[in-house]
Design a protein that fits this description.
By secondary structure, the protein is an alpha+beta fold. Helices cover 15% and strands 34% of the residues. It is rod-shaped and about 140 Å long.
């Protein structure tokens, strides 16, 4: 009589536990990266009234099974659906990150300064100290730092990722060291045949990121070789700063006479060249020679038609001869007299063909594939995270710098992790330990999607179905108690 009563009570308790879990699942149906749980039941214990006996062949008696009465039910386990991915929500925030698993379940590594925890919730932000943190708790996101020597990720013990600091809010400037001339030089262009020549300008940077402009003039030479029609004279006419003021001055910053200025320009550009006879004391320069039939560039040299050892396709703009200040002692022990670097100017991609009397010749800094262009001092304009978890900073001078990499944790039994609230987990004896280093998310083909969040994996249709089943189970157990009470009442009523 009493056994059924207590068995039913245990049934009520276990079904209530299951209902509690279902209620928690439904409450978290919109919780970021929430993983639904489910309850499993097991038999509690049995009372054996008689044990089993074996058959006796000599007497012809068969065996008898044990007589047992069950004493109820208990909660066997609560299983977390840790591998079931939730749906994706697109947010557009670069620090909203979603883990897309390929073969294993990955977790972001976070820390409160003392304890290391793990989460699938990728809603992060950059705090006032520049650290990447969880939006909900402020826990710092852990990852690998950049090796200052190599500029590559150093995969060592994870540490907080500081993505904004005084050292990375700006990007160092670079001096221009290459330039190239491209486009068409039309021999019938009146600018080319005129007195002042066809003007080209080259914008470039010095070591400190200041911008300057070198001015060139291209013209037809007034020489006896002019009849060949495929020789042109190029000279450097001035170098100005960003405000348009010439920088061809003496070491004290004072203006030079026209003759002294011309000699300084000759030293920078055409010291080894010849003076064009177009005007008295004309600047020195070089002669550009093109193929008379094809119009392709042949050479630049210090003599008309010269195809000897001095005939090359590039010449150097010797800016290092410009002394911008007195000698500077650098922190590394070196000294320098100029903040400029020499610029190698390549002419090989220019052509000399007809173009309606209009030239399109231009000189661009860097190489034709955008190398060695030089850059101004850059200010950070954005942060981004790629699919491997690497964090990059973008700067307004075109630079992109690697700041760190988000590491992830993987466990032998991810379902064995213990939920501790705030969308976080901690390790248990059954989950496996965290080694303190982590792994790259793309090691097994997984990835991190920026601008997305993983939502809850709660299946409402399944939860409501389980709710109905649980309700009926609870109801049936309550009926057992009611009937047991009725039987007890009948027993009591035997004695009036």
């Amino acid at each position: 009589m009493m056994r059924s009563l207590f068995s039913a009570v245990s049934g009520l308790k276990t079904h209530q536990t299951r209902m509690d879990v279902i209620g928690n699942n439904i409450a978290n149906v919109n919780t970021e990266a929430f993983k639904a749980s489910s309850v499993r039941f097991s038999e509690l214990m049995y009372q054996t009234m008689s044990t089993a006996s074996g058959g006796d062949a000599s007497t012809g008696t068969g065996g008898v099974n044990a007589k047992q009465v069950g004493l109820g039910v208990s909660t066997a386990s609560t299983m977390i659906n840790i591998t079931g991915a939730g749906s994706s929500e697109t947010t557009g925030n670069p620090f909203d990150l979603k883990l897309s698993d390929s073969q294993t379940t990955n977790f972001f590594i976070v820390s409160d300064g003392t304890n290391t925890m793990f989460t699938r919730a990728g809603s992060f932000y950059v705090d006032g100290n520049g650290y990447l943190c969880m939006s909900s708790t402020g826990y710092t996101v852990q990852g690998w730092q950049v090796d200052k020597t190599t500029g590559e990720i150093h995969k060592d013990t994870v540490s907080p990722l500081q993505v904004m600091s005084p050292s990375n809010t700006t990007s160092a400037p670079e001096a221009t060291t290459k330039a190239y001339v491209h486009g068409i030089l039309d021999k019938e262009d009146t600018d080319v045949t005129g007195k002042d020549g066809y003007v080209m300008t080259l914008g470039f940077y010095d070591d400190l990121g200041y911008s300057y402009t070198a001015k060139f003039a291209v013209s037809t030479p007034k020489t006896t070789d002019k009849a060949t029609g495929n020789n042109y004279f190029i000279s450097l006419t001035d170098i100005v700063d960003s405000e348009g003021n010439t920088i061809i001055k003496d070491t004290n910053g004072k203006a030079l006479s026209d003759d002294a200025k011309r000699k300084k320009l000759d030293e920078i550009w055409g010291a080894d060249g010849k003076a064009d006879d177009k005007a008295t004391n004309a600047p020195k320069g070089y002669y550009m020679k093109y193929d008379a039939n094809k119009g392709t560039f042949i050479s630049i040299s210090n003599g008309v038609g010269d195809a000897g050892a001095n005939a090359v396709t590039a010449q150097t703009l010797k800016l290092s001869t410009l002394v911008t200040s007195s000698t500077t002692n650098n922190a590394d022990g070196t000294t320098q007299k100029s903040n400029f670097k020499d610029i190698n100017v390549d002419f090989s991609t220019s052509t000399n063909v007809g173009h309606g009397g209009k030239s399109t010749l231009k000189v661009e800094r860097g190489t034709s594939v955008g190398k060695e262009t030089g850059k101004k001092n850059g200010a950070m304009i954005g942060l981004s995270v790629d699919q491997s978890g690497k964090i990059y900073a973008s700067y307004d001078n075109g630079n992109t710098e690697l700041l760190g990499q988000i590491a992830v944790a993987q466990f032998a039994n991810a379902s064995g992790l213990e939920k501790i609230g705030d969308n976080c987990y901690q390790t248990t004896l059954n989950s496996g330990e965290f080694d303190g280093v982590g792994v790259a998310v793309d090691a097994d083909g997984s990835k991190i999607n920026s601008g997305q969040l993983e939502m809850s994996n709660v299946d409402l249709s399944g939860q409501f179905t389980d709710m109905i089943i649980t309700q009926r189970g609870f109801q049936a157990n309550s009926r057992v108690i009611t009937v047991s009470d009725t039987l007890l009442e009948e027993l009591i009523n035997l004695k009036r």
